[in-house]
Design goal:
The protein is 8% helix and 47% strand. By secondary structure, it is mainly beta. It has one domain: Jelly Rolls (Sandwich). The chain is globular. The mean pLDDT is 92. Bound molecules: 2-acetamido-2-deoxy-beta-D-glucopyranose (2 copies). It holds the Pfam family But2.
Length: 186
Amino acid sequence: MLAITVVPLLFFLHAYAATLVDRQFPHLIVPVKQDEPDRAFNTQYSGEIAVKAGAHQVYTEISFDVPTNAAQTCNLAFTIAPANGPWTLSGDPAAGPLVFNISSLPNASINKDKDTWNSRPKSQEWVASVEVAYNGNVKLTGGSVVCAKGSAQQFVMYPGSARDFGLTWFELTQPLHGVTYEMYVP
Ligand SMILES: *[C@@H]1O[C@H](CO)[C@@H](O)[C@H](O)[C@H]1NC(C)=O
Ligand SMILES: *[C@@H]1O[C@H](CO)[C@@H](O)[C@H](O)[C@H]1NC(C)=O
């Protein structure tokens, strides 16, 4: 009897004992815009994801320089600090939270000087879906990635459906705001 109750408790404690060893901010934030399909925007301080009438899309490519450390699990996170984080969200609040997705890009595929809507690298695998409510609540599904220690790890953020919205955010450490790469030891 005792064993049956103790084992799940240990798993529970284990799951909550994960320690954050590092949090990285994107080293590159490169938008590509369907409306200016051959223009390269270079790296920016803000991220942007948008779609209107199923077109006029804006994607944002991001690259993290993943350090070498003791981390054993890594995941992407997205945080909005509604009161004092600089962000904008357009669209119809009555339609519920907007959704954007994140997919992986091949290693070293982002070229900040050259990437355009037409020439952007093809994404690989779905990594996360992120719901953002108009009050700033965020719910991320998925997000776990292989820890590419000592290497760049790259992703693209894009609308999760054809529903109209526009989201912009400025990356900030204090308060924590935007997309981050989190590294944990179990
Ligand atoms: C990515 O590429 C760099 C240099 O080209 C290489 O050193 C690194 O191991 C690669 N990382 C992965 C995860 O493939
Ligand atoms: C975004 O991800 C969800 C799964 O969470 C999927 O159903 C949806 O089709 C994806 N959207 C796009 C545009 O790939």
